[in-house]
Amino acid sequence: MSEPKAPKIEFPCDYVIKVIGNAAPDFTDFVVEVVERHAPGIDESRISVNESSKGRFSSVQLKIVATGEPQLKALFEELKASGRVHMVL
């Protein structure tokens, strides 16, 4: 039996990214700045921010226009390499 393949994404497309890290006053600005380098023209109305119940973590959710797998890979790698991000979904 073969393993089921993940569905292929057809680019360009709207793509939702959720970034989780330690809560800090500039965390949202940091995430938006990094994402903007890889997917310019983020619509501010497409950004949502949530704090954890104890205020230790912050999650930033953005919708971008993804142009291809290399773009997404580079974006995820830069966010993770920053040391400020715990998880990118």
Walkthrough of the structure:
This protein is an alpha+beta fold and 89 residues long. Helices cover 28% and strands 33% of the residues. The chain has a four-stranded antiparallel beta sheet, covered by helices on one side. A hairpin with a 5-residue loop joins β2 (47-51) and β3. The termini are far apart. Pfam families: DUF493. This is UPF0250 protein QVZ43_15125. InterPro entries: UPF0250_YbeD-like, YbeD-like_sf. Belongs to the UPF0250 family.
Instruction: Describe the main β-sheet briefly.
Output: 4 strands, antiparallel
Number of continuous helical runs: 2
- H-E order: EHEEHE
Low-pLDDT residue intervals, each spanning 5 or more residues = none
Helix-strand makeup class: alpha+beta
The gross shape turns out to be globular
**Proportion in β-strands:** 25-35%
Average pLDDT score: 92
Task: Write out the strand line-up for the largest beta sheet, numbering strands in chain order.
Answer: 2-3-1-4
Give the fraction of residues assigned to helices.
25-40%
Count of extended strands = 4
* Rg over CA atoms: 14 Å
Report, as a whole number of angstroms, the end-to-end distance.
Answer: 29 Å
